# Entry
Amino acid sequence: MSLGQQLYPHLPFLRRYARALTGSQMRGDAYVRATLEVIVEAPDEFPADMDPRLGLYLMFNRIWTSSDLESTDFGGANENERQALARARLARMTPLPRQALLLTAMEGFSVAEAALLMGVTAAEAESFVGEAMSEIDRQTRATVLIIEDEPIIAMDIETIVRDMGHDVSGIAVTRDEAVQMAVAQRPGLVLADIQLADDSSGIDAVKDILAQFTVPVIFITAFPERLLTGERPEPTFLITKPFQRQTVKAAIAQALFFDEATSPA
# Structure
């Protein structure tokens, strides 16, 4: 099996990590592309003595820590706008504790593997994860709208959200209901399933909501690879079903982290 064939199944999940790490589909996907370009240009430099998935994330992390893609002008901004974007990107740089949490809670790496990927000791990585969890407890509280048509899953998500100290503005099971709830009480975060009760789409519900106002969104789906192709506008934050409690907490914390960083002081 070629190296490309070994790496291909892991690309959607690397995109998920990269987007969560940077807070942007565009920047995250740019780092993934840069990683793949390096691998294609110098395949002999790919670490062949480890699991392909681990090696792929290791190569990505080298690009993440050494490249200056954050200075790329993705939007055709003028000079003042470019300077403002540069300052904002510096302010949004994901610190090491959050990287460790994303690698373990969202991507499922062990602490030892996360340490290898980050170039730190296992003890340091474990300390980073603990620090990130403590930071979550100190994070600004938000009002969360849950869009989920499965009652048990909705209750599970609600429990996680409330245990984190956030409020739940409502639980919607259809597209129309979600939009009505969002307009009635503007949430600070939306957690949205893809398939809803009346065969409507959580993606369409989110589009309708975002047409009214800007709000961070986390999608929840059993088929993440369908929304992690890198070929079209896709979610920045995405949780895979069935999910772990720590995964939901990490995604919520990271989404709110970037929302706070971009909000006016």
